[in-house]
Specification:
CATH architecture of the largest domain: Sandwich
Helix content: under 10%
Structural class: mainly beta
Number of helices: 0
Strand content: 35-45%
Number of strands: 25
InterPro entries: DUF4437 (IPR028013), RmlC-like_jellyroll (IPR014710), RmlC_Cupin_sf (IPR011051)
Shape: globular
CATH topology of the largest domain: Jelly Rolls
CATH class of the largest domain: Mainly Beta
Order of helices and strands: EEEEEEEEEEEEEEEEEEEEEEEEE
Largest sheet: 10 strands, antiparallel
Protein name: DUF4437 domain-containing protein
Radius of gyration: 20 Å
Organism: Paractinoplanes atraurantiacus
Pfam family, one: DUF4437
Length: about 280
């Protein structure tokens, strides 16, 4: 299981040598989050030199998204907005990351393992998308909200797992608390949003396990994210929220040991204060 991250900026992580077996070249990673049980990871890659890897079979559902620079997959060069998804056990073509490029990389339901030159062990199709060529589509909304806009990059037809781009126009706001039956993960590509759990701007990252309530939001500029979820992201809303706790102390002094109402997620002070900080 991954830890709840809310919010942290990419620059608050440190660089490590990229964990991309059988690759050649110079690439570094910032590990945004990881699942210690199955090795699933979300990474920000920075190519200090050209980097490449030949064809083979990944041990996890594998995704790449170009933030800046370019990636060449099987002879097709993809600039910013380029996206590649390879299902676990499906053979992928050779991949090259150009020096200076910044690329988001995800491994889901498996670790960094890679079998070079191997044949596919599972059936499936590789998805290659140039998001710059896609049109923004208005997302359905509930209530009198300015619409959000979506570019769908990939959806698994069996599990509903999806990766998509989302844009909120300047002035978009939602005061309600929302939670979902699936996890929600995002990386901010551009723009700025005010949020009661800290500032959201370019490079801000979040991973929320299923059931975590969050909100409210105000888009101070147009703002774009890349968002992933391990199922259909249904918004369950809470309004006029309240919290009540109580009980009887059995083996501690209730006056000197305050009860824990909830645990705090991983967070970053560089994102600004939370509502209630200092109380």
């Amino acid at each position: 299981m991954r830890a709840h991250v809310e919010l942290i900026h990419e620059d608050d992580y440190i660089f490590h040598t990229g964990e991309l077996p059988y690759g050649e070249g110079k690439i570094f990673e910032r590990r945004l989050s990881t699942d210690e049980e199955d090795g699933s990871s979300s990474l920000a890659l920075h190519a200090a030199g050209d980097w490449g890897r030949g064809p083979g079979v990944p041990h996890a559902d594998t995704e790449f998204y170009v933030v800046s620079g370019s990636v060449t997959y099987g002879g097709v060069e993809l600039g910013p907005g380029g996206y590649v998804q390879v299902p676990k056990g499906v053979r992928m073509d050779w991949l090259k990351v150009r020096e200076g490029s910044r690329v988001l990389h995800w491994r889901e339901y498996g670790d960094c393992g890679f079998d070079p030159g191997a044949r596919a062990t599972e059936e499936g199709e590789v998805t290659v998308v140039d998001a710059e060529r896609q049109e923004w589509v208005a997302a359905p909304t509930i209530g009198p909200l300015t619409p959000l806009y979506i570019k769908l990059l990939h959806r698994d037809p069996k599990t509903g797992f999806y990766t998509r781009l989302i844009r909120a126009p300047k002035g978009w706001t939602d005061h309600r608390l929302a939670h979902h039956p699936c996890y929600e993960e995002f990386y901010t590509l551009s723009g700025r949003m005010a949020y009661n759990f800290g500032d959201i701007d370019e490079g801000t990252y979040c991973f929320r396990p299923a059931g975590v309530k969050h909100g409210h939001f105000v888009a101070e500029t147009d703002i774009d994210w890349i968002i992933r979820s391990d199922g259909e992201l249904v918004n369950w809303y809470t309004t006029e929220e309240w919290i009540k706790w109580g009980g009887h102390a059995e083996n501690y002094d209730e006056h000197s040991h305050a009860p824990v109402v909830s645990t705090l997620p991983v967070r970053s002070r560089s994102r600004g204060p939370w509502s209630g900080d200092g109380m």
